[in-house]
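Worked Example 4.2. Consider the chain below.
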Amino acid sequence: MKKIFRLTALTAASLVLAGCASVNMDQAVRDTNDSTSTFTQGKLELSRTGQQNQARAKLSSELLAKPLNMDEAVQLALANSPAVQTLLAQSWSDMAQANQTGRIANPVFTFERIRFADELELGRLLSFGLLDLLTLPRRLEISRSQMAQARVQLSANVVEQVTQVRQTWVRAVAAQQSLAYANQVNRSAQASSELAKRMQQVGNFTKLQRVRQQSFYADSAAQLASSQHASTTAREELVRQLGLTDAQAGQLQLPERLPDLPKAPLQAAVVNANAPQQRLDVQIARNQLEMAGKSQGLNLITSLVDVELGVRRDTVFDNAAGTSTPRKGYELGIRLPIFDWGTAKRDAMNAQSLAAANRYESTVRGASSQLRESYSAYRTAYDVARHYRDEIVPLRKIMAEENILRYNGMLIGVFELLANNRDQIASVTAALNAYQQFWLADAALAASMTGKPTALAMASPAAGGEQAAGH
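Applying the procedure from the previous section yields the following structure tokens:
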């Protein structure tokens, strides 16, 4: 009996030590900042105090006082967005639940008081799951694996959130830039339309010539309306990504144009420098496989049998004799696998392990392919944007200048000049779209390099002459 009590005391002590471990969320956030430093710049923080909230509000106000570049937009989202705080709090919850997996159920204390004639019996029973105690080391291993998985998942979620902010910022700035150009085109078309009306009145323009100019103005007005809505939509999407209030949304300022293209694109060797095993998606799949294997061994035992051990101490009082008799012992309860042998549960575990193994293999095989695809989109977008910048737009500008000279010399008519203007407008619009496509691809490539691929549909802008041909 003394050995049983010693075992009980030793087990209780080990349980207390195991239960003392808690989730250090601050350390988890620091680890995430380290692993995703190119995305968070070390600015990720879970706010739990009024002082932290005040610091976040102050930083947000400072950032909103000037036009936001891409990095500042990310910094503002990390400091201001409730969605980011929700992500961190949910990760904290996931880690706490994973930590709970490494603990066992509390022991149960039972007290009985039974009277029979002149006898009074007091029963005391302390019981706990013996199988839980024996499998505690494996439970702790599973718990640690689940917490590691939660940390990697947090990093993946942060990368995804930051990538969304970057791409939304690109769309908002590009839409604003397109709106400014649409306004410029509309004003020019309006002036041309008014001039055509006056020239028709004095007999220098035919009705057809005047109608062509007016049609050009009508088209530009429709395009301006579409650009205004597109700009509003992109801006409001950015407002939501940044988590801005109505007052903050009114303060939001964006640059007039997208950044210039880098002098040179990233080389494939740099993109492929990271080992596939360090990618977040591969780490997540590997952790899932490890947890499935560890859980299968534990669940194989618990699906067959469960054992409960109890230490009993009773005292019987005989009022007639004036004596008390102590009784000591233990109880052992075993769940017998009579009706359920756990075959269905074991089949489910086998299937889960098989799925995890194939998921890991699929992720490893697809990692390099996804990275190559993302790099191809990035490099293609860079080459197209550079081609518009260095070739198409300058050529269209030269053509426009030459046609104006020819028009002033009465070598061409208004129809040719108008067609050239439409070609130039189409080329500039396509160039703006190419710049936007590059910066979207740049953000997607950065996410893919860390192991969080982002779907990106490549635009296929038509040539300026083809667009103009439809008018």
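The longest strand covers residues 306-318. Residues 262-304+348-471 form one domain. Compare this with Example 4.1 before moving on.
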